């Protein structure tokens, strides 16, 4: 469960002296959309925190996931994909990713080796001055061994990376060596967050994200990109836990599609999302879903703010 870990943690707190050798820092996980960043972050921290779907551009905001052991604390910043924005929400997504890279102690650049545009992007990309970078060649099961070896050699020749690592994040293959490299590359520093925390966002955030993830899974084509989810009520003291959530869409026709004939689609979304929520909070959940139209919210600064998305700086 989020926020829980084993042990008292006293040995870690005792290691926070000036000469303890403890390492900590923020690791920006960047790359093009759909290269496996969120799946990789979940594998690195050993717990599902970022939502994952087969569709690109699922991640909309920076999310902090924390891995702590006796000598290190890495705060992984899962960022939206580096895309060319077409509307206001995507402009903010791009800003989120770029700001995370500039503010980071370390950059973990993720490449989908089977996607030529992702490989080309990493080849041309340059880290902000003074920020070291590790390259993760992900989805390596999409290449033959000889192709992968050649690709590694090309990136190694640039000298731009502290180290290169091959992974298949969806199966957690290669994740342990990558995690070790990240931890060893962190600067000396204190514990940044309590050792039993694995994320900084409140449960409300994760509840909204899991409902949104389910919308991506159940609804086809472009409709999920027009959806935002707000948590109106979260009553943990009740049994079952009561969660009142609103699914916002941009057009009246989309509302009917989310509800479905006779309410069939909203029931499917609700049942699947409730099971995920119960797994997350380790308790029974009553999920009350509503659907509302908020016209053109992805392009409207005031409505972006209403839904909790900061407006891009150039629009402020």
Could you characterize the architecture of this molecule?
The protein contains ten helices and nine strands. Helix content is 35%, strand content 20%. The longest helix is centred in the last third of the chain and has 18 residues, at 264-281. Mean pLDDT is 85; it is low at 3-15. By secondary structure, the protein is of the alpha/beta class. The strands form two sheets. The chain has a six-stranded mixed sheet, sandwiched between helices. Helix 7 packs antiparallel against helix 9. The chain has two domains: 10-185, P-loop containing nucleotide triphosphate hydrolases (Rossmann fold, 3-Layer(aba) Sandwich); 203-315, K homology (KH) domain (GMP Synthetase, Chain A, domain 3). The radius of gyration is 20 Å and the shape is globular. It has helices at 10-14, 37-45, 88-103, 116-124, 145-158, 175-185, 203-218, 252-259, 264-281, 301-306; strands at residues 23-30, 63-68, 72-78, 106-112, 133-138, 164-166, 228-235, 241-249, 285-293.
By helix and strand content, what is the structural category? alpha/beta
Q: What's the rounded overall pLDDT mean?
A: 85
Number of domains: 2
The overall strand count is 9
Regions with little confidence, pLDDT below 50 for 5+ residues: 3-15
Oligomer: single chain
Shape category: globular
Strand content: 15-25%
- Taken in chain order, the helices and strands follow as HEHEEHEHEHEHHEEHHEH
Strand order of the largest sheet: 2-3-1-4-5-6
